[in-house]
Amino acid sequence: MRALPMAILTILTASAPAAAQCSDAEKTKLKEFDLAWGEATTGGNRAQLLTVYADDYAGTTPTGTLGKATTIDNAVRQAERAKASTQPAPKVTYDNFIITCTPVTALVTHRNATTSTMGGREQTSYSRSVHVMEKRGGRWQVVGNAGHALDDAAVLLYMENDWNEAARKHDAAWFERNYAAGATEISGRTGALQTKSEVVASMRTDKAVLDSLGLSEMNVRVDGDVAVVTGVNHVKGRDEQGKPFNMRARFTDTFIRRDGRWQVWATQSTIIP
Description:
This protein is α+β, with helices and mostly antiparallel strands. The protein contains six helices and twelve strands.
């Protein structure tokens, strides 16, 4: 059983005093604003982008700082090139949002997954964006932006988080895609070994409920196209009979890079008494 919540960007999630925090509803609006901004950028919607960026916007890039006009021009040109190309346009998805805000300022960070097709095969690259926003004239605007590509260790930690969510939701499709051919899983509770097809089938029938998840002692080692992630899971939930359980398990996950992406090759966990 997987139970691995993300342990990334702790500094960015440090809370301001409770009295200064914005509401959950406002955080939802910020996420919606961010997603709409992404769509406007991909589509090259100049009119919308003019309202998204503040006049004093400053975006940090590897080559320097860009202002509002240059940033919008670049987005429009890139969208026009994508529309004119005979190749399928890259697909960009945004997830793993972390939002910290006051009623008039916000720090929004999320993961970006860009998937393109090369030689008939999908290739996905990952990055992280950090946006600084301010509410001006009653509406949010972007005043600062920065981002960076994720290295293999960060990609694997995010993958552990995705794996965790897939287990919570019994998302068999995730296991079908992200378990490599020949992957094996050894249960920490029973010691039983399952193949990929057996794991996928169990996800479709499993009735266990995960109520809370905890992670500690995460460590990532990467050597070429093979990686090992270790850590400790603290899992609380209810089994198929509704009986509560509360357990900690030390795990070892082995990944292999195939078809240009990391895939689960083997996983094993041991219950800690």
